[in-house]
Design a protein that fits this description.
The protein is of the alpha+beta class. The protein contains 18 helices and 18 strands. A hairpin with a 6-residue loop joins strand 4 and strand 5. Helix 14 packs antiparallel against helix 15 and helix 17 packs antiparallel against helix 18. The two termini are 18 Å apart. The relative contact order is 0.15. The model has no long low-confidence stretch (mean pLDDT 96).
Length: 587
């Protein structure tokens, strides 16, 4: 029985269950059990994280909800409903916990670290981390209670629509500060207190500060140079995911228009700056306008190298690379390859400044008053995987390892990668569970980031192999070639026991093997093009034989007991507007 108006494919060719297919499901189930144990240990019945809630760049609200990072992905792959329930309870509890949590000295969070269910004022290194889970909630359940209101409200904070949050200047097409949120932008010099949070006693004796600080003085010293925050910064482009969410939910063009207006402004600034994305845009819209005309200036800028207080060593902290998220969001909305083009050209422009040092070719990664610096033997490659994944241009492979790993597998050079990668992730889950069981912290000695390294969710290989996608980070959306739905259960995710292996990705073709490992009962699965139905299908070849033409962004497959086949699907990438709507809800 087909649950779609679209095409339907019947597969009854027997296929012995491959090792990778059996391992996929065992790994999903293993992580489910590990996540349930983790949630029981670290969260209470309200969904509050059992920790000392603090404001700050080291152990603040973003780290608290980051303890559930990757959990939505496990659900979207086929994890049980309990995973989604924990994600939702954790999110609701998080919003309440950090609305109730107040600072005593940090001025803008004295009435609550969250206001209107959003961070009051922080940068998108941290805002993005804190929204990594929520930005996937629409893929889990776009009609969940309050989701529509939150998506609209969050996007409105950055579109110049909300008088309480005047973050966006539509005239100059800028977000007005590196620090921004539901209470608007910070338009003054930031202080170390703003970043580090309220004073904390007995740091070394009572807490495990993961950034290595031994006392509050060192916590302040960590942020003493984080002052130049006024003006726009590329990391603010992560905020465009909020606009993408609102468009995917509502289809209202104003959200799409804002994302494209803002990203296009950044594209033009990059072109105007000799192909290098600047890290400070003045309130008047000029490049380097708040930093004496220095395009590389500002906190988290190209020239942002600071002293590590506990070691005295130098650390370069340029977060411009987060801007690639905005170009990816614009591509999702338009299919226009100009957006990855600008990042590719920037990679080449930076590496063109390579020079010979001690007889070795060295490449720069930072830029300051004296020009390019922070040379290393590795070429600059931030965003190289994204550029290739979005463009599918063969020439972009030169920046990646074609011989091993996931890309090596897709290129036919590492056939053992699926088994090796899944086995690796089994090992990581085991290690994470052991760490959690041996964790000596208690709620009154625990900072919000302490459980982060213990989180057992490990979906990296599953996302690559099952969906042909990249694991989202820093609040980015899910970029994948295929997504699956269980039409009989009327939910996202692969039906129980159906394995998927995306074996080849090309500009106009997707090759995947589907197999029903259940030898007794049939399965039905809906295959969708992209996480947001952004890719369209034209036709499919099953086991090398033409079957039928396809229409739209999804088709249904019935797999007889123990049946499987390789599908070569003609694909038009980024040919449809992104949507959260499930396949059976689309006309």
């Amino acid at each position: 029985m087909s649950y779609l108006k679209q095409s339907y494919i019947d597969i009854d060719t027997p296929m012995a269950p491959p090792a990778w297919a059996l391992m996929e499901w065992e790994l999903i189930r293993t992580q489910e059990r590990a996540c349930a144990e983790f949630f029981e240990h670290y969260f209470d019945e309200r969904g509050y994280l059992e920790c000392i809630p603090r404001w700050g760049g080291n152990d603040g609200p973003d780290d608290a909800i980051e303890n559930l990072v990757h959990w939505p992905l496990l659900y979207l792959l086929g994890g049980r409903d309990e995973l989604r329930a924990m994600c939702e309870l954790g999110w609701e509890g998080h919003l309440k916990q950090y609305t109730e949590a107040k600072t005593t000295q940090v001025p803008f969070a004295r009435d609550g670290m969250y206001y209107r269910e959003f961070p009051v004022m922080f940068d998108w290194v941290h805002n993005g981390e804190g929204l990594t889970t929520f930005n996937l909630h629409g893929l889990m359940d776009p009609v969940a209670r309050n989701f529509d209101k939150r998506v609209r409200r969050y996007a409105g904070f950055y579109m110049g629509e909300d008088p309480q949050a005047p973050n966006y200047d539509p005239e100059h097409k800028i977000i007005r500060s590196l620090l921004n949120g539901s209470r608007g932008p910070m338009l003054r010099k930031a202080t170390a207190l703003d970043w580090a949070g309220d004073p904390l006693d007995d740091v070394e004796e009572r807490f495990n500060a993961l950034h290595g600080e031994r006392n509050y003085v060192e916590m302040l010293a960590h942020f003493e140079d984080y002052t130049d925050v006024v003006g726009d910064h590329p990391s603010n482009m992560v905020a465009t995911t909020l606009g993408l969410n609102a468009y995917a939910l509502t289809g209202e063009s104003r959200y799409r228009d804002w994302v494209l207006e803002y990203v296009e402004a950044w594209r033009q600034r990059t072109l105007d700056n000799d192909g290098i994305i600047p890290t400070n845009i003045g309130l008047d819209g000029s490049i380097g306008g708040e930093c004496g005309g220095k395009w590389y200036g500002g906190c988290y800028g190209w020239g942002f190298t600071v002293t590590v207080p506990q070691t005295g060593g130098l650390s370069s902290r340029n977060s411009h690379y987060l801007g690639v998220a905005g170009f990816g969001n614009a591509l999702l909305l338009t299919g226009d390859q100009r957006y990855p083009d600008v990042w590719r050209d920037m990679i080449d422009a930076i590496n063109a400044n390579a020079k010979i040092i001690d007889g070795q070719q060295m490449y720069p990664h930072m830029h300051g008053d004296d020009g390019w610096y922070d040379y290393s033997a590795q070429p600059y490659s931030q965003g190289a995987l994204e550029v290739y994944y979005w463009s599918m241009q063969r020439d972009d492979l030169k920046r990646l390892n074609e011989n091993s790993g996931w890309i090596g597998f897709l290129e036919g050079n590492d056939p053992d990668y699926p088994t090796v990668a899944l086995q690796r992730d089994f090992g990581r889950v085991r290690e994470q569970v052991e760490k959690g069981r041996n964790d000596p912290t208690t709620p009154d000695t625990r900072l919000s980031d302490n459980p982060n390294p213990i989180n057992p969710a490990t979906p990296g290989a599953l996302v690559e192999l099952m969906t042909g996608g990249m694991v989202p980070r820093h609040g980015c959306p899910l970029h994948c070639r295929l997504r699956y739905f269980d039409p009989r259960a009327q939910r996202p995710g692969m039906p129980e026991g159906v394995g998927a292996l995306v074996e080849k990705l090309e500009d106009e073709s997707t090759t995947v093997t589907l197999v029903n490992t259940d030898q007794v009962d049939e399965r039905e699965v809906v295959v969708q093009g992209g996480a947001y139905a952004e890719h369209c299908f034209d036709r499919v070849r099953v086991n090398g034989e033409a079957v039928e033409d396809l229409e739209g962004s999804a088709f249904a497959v019935r797999l007889a007991p123990g049946a499987g086949a390789q599908l070569e699907i003609a694909t038009r990438r980024y040919a449809a507007p992104p949507t959260f709507a499930f396949p059976w809800d689309r006309s």
